[in-house]
Specification:
Number of strands: 12
Number of domains: 1
Number of helices: 9
Shape: extended
Distance between the termini: 70 Å
Structural class: alpha+beta
Strand content: 15-25%
Helix content: 40-55%
Radius of gyration: 29 Å
Length: 330
């Protein structure tokens, strides 16, 4: 009986050990699933917060009070009360972007304040590559022609440019697109374009909009890229700021027509030529229809703040609802 009782005791201990291991394993598995569920819930909350910022900005764009022109002192562009740290449940949403001077502005950014590489004429592409990309004059002309060749539908090679034969002859061949650029980074596929030049011009280019640059929202650097002297570009931006010398405030000087650009003061002959060249190229406008919205959803989690970002490009229409052209979540 003693031997049999000892065997039963040992067996019981083994069973209890296996049950303990099973229970611990189950608990660990359930704990992991609970952590995963909590993580997914937090991600969803942050996404909803960021999406709320997007919707808020779109509503403000639709309520634009000035249908004939767009400027930086309108509510969609810089409105802390409407776009900065708007509390929603367990977190808040912020819609913002950074100015050329490094200032944080709260609202949507005018995408028409940059140069559309799908529409920019050869002269502007050359100016941009020389003035901002710091390419040599001959190099800038060749790259500009290569950009034209990349986006046009013919097989005629521009001076210094390249069509399908060149790209197919590379060590790692690929076709010449013969269509619009879909993303700015596609420029890196173009003959002559280096990562160094691209990094310098990346902040002044876009692939959206009509191609005309809004003189009410464009910054000094982009004006210089268009072909204006650095001094003239600075004078134009300074004129826009009004008496308080702060952009995006009530006393801003607004251009209601492109011709009013001549109101900023006396021009030297060369400066008049620069202005007239841009006007003749239809490179300037005072109205925008495409905007970049960068929305941040911040979730308060104890002592930590969790964040999710959404960037989208929205096109606004006079009668139809806005259309989202681009969407990226980080």
């Amino acid at each position: 009986m003693s031997s049999k009782g000892g065997s039963i005791l040992i067996l019981t201990l083994w069973v209890l050990s296996f049950l303990s291991i099973f229970v611990i394993g189950m608990a660990f598995n359930v704990s992991g699933q609970l952590r995963l569920a909590s993580h997914l819930q937090d991600r969803l909350k942050m996404q909803c917060l960021a999406r709320a910022g997007i919707e808020r900005a779109i509503i403000e764009l639709e309520m634009d009070e000035e249908p004939d022109y767009d400027s930086l002192n309108e509510k969609w562009s810089n409105n802390e009360e409407f776009f900065k740290e708007i509390n929603l449940g367990d977190g808040y949403t912020t819609v913002s972007y950074q100015s050329e001077e490094g200032l944080i502005l709260y609202g949507a950014m005018d995408e028409s304040s940059t140069i559309n590489i799908n529409n920019a004429p050869l002269q502007i592409l050359k100016s941009m590559l020389e003035n901002i990309g710091e390419a040599e004059r001959g190099e800038a002309a060749n790259i500009a022609n290569a950009i034209i060749d990349w986006r046009d539908i013919d097989n005629i090679v521009s001076p210094g440019g390249a069509e399908n034969k060149y790209y197919q002859g590379l060590e790692l061949p690929y076709p010449c697109k013969s269509a619009d650029f879909q993303i700015p980074e596609e420029l890196l596929l173009v003959k002559g374009m280096s990562p160094e030049i691209f990094s310098k011009i990346a902040g002044v280019i876009t692939v959206y909009g009509t191609g005309a640059v809004n003189i009410n929202t464009v910054d000094r650097r982009t004006l210089h890229a268009l072909g204006l002297s650095s001094e003239l570009a600075g004078r134009l931006v300074q004129f826009r700021r009004g008496r308080d010398e702060i952009e995006g405030t009530e006393d801003d000087n607004i251009f209601k027509t492109v011709a009013e650009i001549r109101n900023i003061g006396h021009f030297f002959t060369k400066e008049s030529e620069e202005i007239n060249r841009l006007i003749s190229l239809n490179a300037l406008t005072v109205k925008s229809d495409v905007f970049r919205i960068s929305s941040y959803g911040i979730l308060k989690k104890g002592s930590r703040n969790l964040q999710r970002n959404i960037i989208c490009i929205v096109q606004k229409f006079e009668k139809d609802p806005p259309q989202i052209l681009y969407w990226r979540e980080d």
